[in-house]
Each structure stands twice: as structure tokens, then as C-alpha cells.
Amino acid sequence: MTITRVAGNGGLPMINVSNDHADAVISVYAGQVLSFTPKGAADVLFVSDKAYYAEGKAIKGGVPICWPWFGADPEGKGRPAHGFMRNRMWSEWETRDNADGSTTVILGVESSPETLAIWPNAFRLAMEITVGKTLQLALVTRNTGDAAFTITQALHTYFAVGDIAQTTVTGLEGTQYLDKAADGNGATKQQDGAISIASEVDRIYLGVPAEQAIVDGALNRTIRITSSGNKTAVVWNPWAKIAAGMADLQDDDYTRFVCVETTNAADDVVSVAAGSEFRLTAEYSV
Q1: 82 catalytic, yes or no?
Q2: Where is the catalytic site (predicted)?
Q3: Which of 20, 180, 205, 223 stands the most exposed, by the fewest C-beta atoms within 10 Å?
């Protein structure tokens, strides 16, 4: 096993992991996995070639962390969408080798006067990343205050695909979803069959099973997602018009990824009691 710490794009601190099973790149900034490449295979994750690597900016791709809210500011105070963890520096808390040849890296953030000014709750947040035959992620929220708080959150994962036109998402057949795309008005609909993407898709699936899969015809692979701690999942692809309007995406990048996000979103609100913790987990295998 090899762990190297380097200055990555924009001078941001990165951790490179290489073991007998896979290679990975982890950004300490944002607590974000940017690459997971099983040995002899293609990268499971997508990162835009035009992504920003600068403090205060979110990195477009990999596994951004939305916390302590998903989507717009729930209190309408003008705070940034998707919370304040995907654009700040984290700390490296622990690295270790495991008996199965995998490697675990734990990054974290604790509440500070700065975070308390944004969100008045004491916390200790950890991102546990295990790189092995699979990529295992656990976002662990500990309430270090003396009163319960509530959160919504997401592992906003960008999965690399060979061609979105040859890609389907399975495992959500028959599930109700909130349609958040421009023409959806947030209406509830039911998924009929596998999900294929031929226009903007922005959906919060409700009451989801623990497993989904991305069937990638162009790369001839299936990426399996197994999660716990969530009742919702988000499927997102901006399609051509929105992608063209994003400065940190190439115009045709929408053809190369799909976001299938493990979430506590919409009414899937988590209450974390004082002194307790909550784990949101996802595992990705090919």
C-alpha cells in the first residue's frame, strides 16, 4: 500500500492511494474523493476538466458532500445551496491499512466559530473512505452539542459513463419520485422501468431500496451502488443547455456522467440527538 500526499490542482492538498486493488485520489479540501480506479479498469468517477480548484469553490465531480442541508437553504437565509462542507478545508484524521489489502483514509471537520455563525450547532463530521476492491464511503455526523439538530445531506456522486445515450439506471423501478427538472414543477411521478436519460433529469426518488446500478453499455460495465442510512436517492444529469451554461463543465460533459446520489433529501430529514451520531454510507463496485 502506498499513500502519498501532494499539492494537487490549485495547490490543494491531495492524498493519493495505491494498493493491490485500486488507485484513488482524495482531496483534503472538501473531503472529496476525486478518483477511484480499480486495477486494470477505467475510473468509476467523473471530474470535469474545467473544474475549479480554489478555496471557496466546489469541485465539479467525484463525490462532493452536501451537508448539513441538501438543496436550497432550508431556512431561506441566503446561505449557499448544499451547505458549507464542499467548499472548505478538512483535516486528515487517520490513515490505515486493513487486513484485506484495502486502505482507509478518514477526513474530518469540527464546528468552529466560523461554522457556528453559519449554522448554530456543535458537530464533528467525518468522511471515512476505504479504497479496496470496492469504494466504501461513510459520512458520519456526531452531535457534540447539548440539543438535537436536524440535517439533510448527500453523497453527490458523479459516475463516469462512456455515453449517456447507452446508459441506464436500474433498481428504482416502480419508485415514486419528485420531478425537479425545469418542466417537472416538483410533481410526484412513478418510475416506469429502468431510467434512461435523453433530456434534463433532476429527480428525488422516495422510499428507495438499498441497491441501484448504472448499466454502461459504451464501457460494457455495471457500477453497483449499495447504501444505508438513506430513504431517498437523487438522479441528476443537466443535459445540454444547462451544461453549456456551467463554466466548470465542458459543453458535452453531460454525455460522460450521471449523478446517482445517496441522500437524505426532501422529507428524509435526519434528527441527530445530543451526543449521538448518524452514518450515511455508500459502497461502489464494478
Answers
A1: no
A2: 156, 261
A3: 20
Q: Please, are residues 47 and 41 in contact by the beta-carbon 8 Å criterion?
A: no
**For 9-63, how does the pLDDT look when each residue is reduced to its tens digit (9 = 90+)?**
999 999 999 999 999 999 999 999 999 999 999 999 999 999 999 999 999 999 9
Task: Return the CATH number at 232.
Answer: 2.70.98.10
Dist. CA 280–CA 65, nearest whole Å: 11
**Does 92 qualify as catalytic in the annotation?**
no
Q: Would you say 53 and 89 are in contact if contact means Cβ atoms under 8 Å apart?
A: no
Name 24's bridge partners.
17, 36
pTM (predicted TM-score): 0.97
Q: How far apart are CA 76 and CA 33, in angstroms?
A: 29
Other beta carbons within 10 Å of 89 = 14
* Alpha helical stretches, state H, the chain: 113-118, 239-244
d(CA 20, CA 211): 26
Whether 154 and 172 share a structural domain: no
Q: How many domains does the chain have?
A: 2
What would the grid cell of residue 35 be?
A: 478518483
Task: Give the pLDDT of residue 137.
Answer: 99
> Which of 21, 128, 200, 261 does the annotation list as catalytic?
261
Domain termination residue (choose one: 160, 187, 202): 160
**Residue 91's closest CA among 154, 137, 4, 26?**
26
pLDDT for the residue 186: 80
pLDDT on residue 185: 78
Cell (9 digits) for 187: 410533481
**3/6 Cα distance (integer angstroms):** 10
Closest CA to 46 of 169, 203, 156: 156
Query: Which contiguous run of DSSP H or E holds residue 242?
Result: helix 239-244
